[in-house]
């Protein structure tokens, strides 16, 4: 056989080897894709597979929806009485309408902080120790801080019109601001690191100490000389006579804001419960990944084995002599 005929014999054989190599690569890619699709994906704590909210669960129930509707009605009636039906005050005039929101919000703030203390005590008591009490305490404190901020805001607006300034270093105003800052600190303590139980214990101690400021705030106008007026309805030793419509509006404000507080607490403590579940799930995933470190993963080894097969075949095929035996 001449040298000019040798390339013609080699070209078909090289073409067959090239097709065989492509077939092995295609089968290897298919096997890798099949193994990859059959592997169980690792999901993080925020994914839909591990999130309790991902399956359509929420914080609302039939009771909370009914309570929310009633609260909307109560707030609408309150707005109607406070802004339209209730007459202006003889001395303060239209400024008295600010007090309907001021009195309602400070009442809810006091109520929220007391509930925080009671729930904290229930958690510290061994017979009733449960993280549910801690979540109620945290939710109530958050709402109390919100309403206390509204109290300070409406009080500043009222003071600007009545006293001519937004802020005075009065005993009642100063102690109220100090109470507000104290519960901001309580929320900061809840945000520190540690387990749920550690969070509950340290925040419960702070809540039981912080609630002692409420009597100090309430009686500050009697303990110290204050420009802030004393209670006009709760005490009988006063000469203040309220119009029946004004008194009804004040009582309606306390009821409406209390309903709003209950609705907020129910939803917020359920949100805190979901957050705790997500934290626990994330910890479980982290521990599982930590335990799996250093262990051979069969599912991960399968694509490697399948992918290495074409290489071995090609290597074996590459050892076939290309020299034409006829020549």
UniProtKB/TrEMBL annotation:
Gene Ontology molecular functions: heme binding; heme transmembrane transporter activity
Segments crossing the lipid bilayer: 66-86, 98-124, 136-159, 171-192, 204-225, 245-266
InterPro entries: Cyt_c_assembly, Cyt_c_biogenesis_CcmC, Cyt_c_biogenesis_CcsA/CcmC
Polar residues composition bias: residue spans: 35-53
Region (Disordered): 1-56, 289-327
Protein location: Membrane
Cellular component GO terms, alphabetical: plasma membrane
Keywords noted in UniProt: Cytochrome c-type biogenesis, Membrane, Transmembrane, Transmembrane helix
Domain Cytochrome c assembly protein residues, every copy: 64-227
Pfam family of the protein (one): Cytochrom_C_asm
Biased composition (Basic and acidic residues): 1-33
Entry's Gene Ontology BP terms: cytochrome complex assembly
Membrane topology, from the record: Multi-pass membrane protein
Low complexity biased stretches: 298-327
Family: Belongs to the CcmC/CycZ/HelC family.
The name this protein goes by in its record: Unannotated protein
Species annotation: freshwater metagenome
């Amino acid at each position: 056989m001449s040298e000019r005929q040798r390339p013609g014999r080699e070209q078909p054989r090289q073409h067959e080897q090239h097709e065989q190599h492509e077939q092995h690569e295609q089968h290897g890619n298919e096997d890798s894709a099949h193994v990859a699709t059959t592997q169980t994906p690792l999901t993080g704590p925020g994914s839909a597979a591990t999130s309790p909210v991902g399956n359509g669960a929420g914080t609302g129930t039939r009771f909370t929806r009914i309570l929310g509707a009633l609260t909307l009605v109560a707030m609408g009636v309150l707005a109607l009485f406070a802004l339209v039906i209730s007459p202006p005050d003889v001395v303060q005039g239209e400024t008295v309408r600010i007090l309907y929101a001021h009195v309602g919000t400070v009442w809810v703030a006091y109520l929220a902080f007391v509930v925080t203390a009671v729930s904290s005590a229930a958690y510290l008591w061994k017979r009733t120790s449960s993280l549910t009490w801690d979540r109620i305490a945290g939710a109530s404190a958050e709402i109390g801080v919100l309403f206390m901020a509204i109290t300070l805001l409406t009080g500043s607006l009222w003071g600007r019109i009545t006293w001519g300034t937004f802020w005075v270093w009065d005993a009642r105003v100063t102690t109220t601001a100090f109470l507000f800052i104290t519960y901001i600190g309580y929320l900061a303590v809840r945000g520190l690191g540690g387990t749920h139980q550690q969070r509950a214990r340290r925040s419960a101690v702070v809540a039981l100490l912080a609630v002692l400021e409420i009597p100090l705030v309430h009686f500050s106008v009697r303990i110290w000389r204050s420009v802030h007026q004393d209670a006009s309805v709760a005490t009988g030793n006063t000469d203040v006579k309220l119009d029946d419509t004004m008194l009804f509006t004040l009582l309606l404000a306390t009821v409406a804001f209390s309903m709003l507080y209950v609705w907020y607490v129910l939803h917020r403590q359920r949100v805190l419960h979901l957050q705790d579940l997500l934290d626990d799930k994330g910890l479980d995933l982290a521990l599982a990944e930590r335990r799996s470190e250093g262990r051979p993963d069969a599912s991960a080894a399968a694509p490697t084995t399948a992918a290495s097969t074409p290489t071995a075949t090609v290597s074996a095929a590459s050892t076939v002599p290309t020299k034409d035996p006829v020549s």
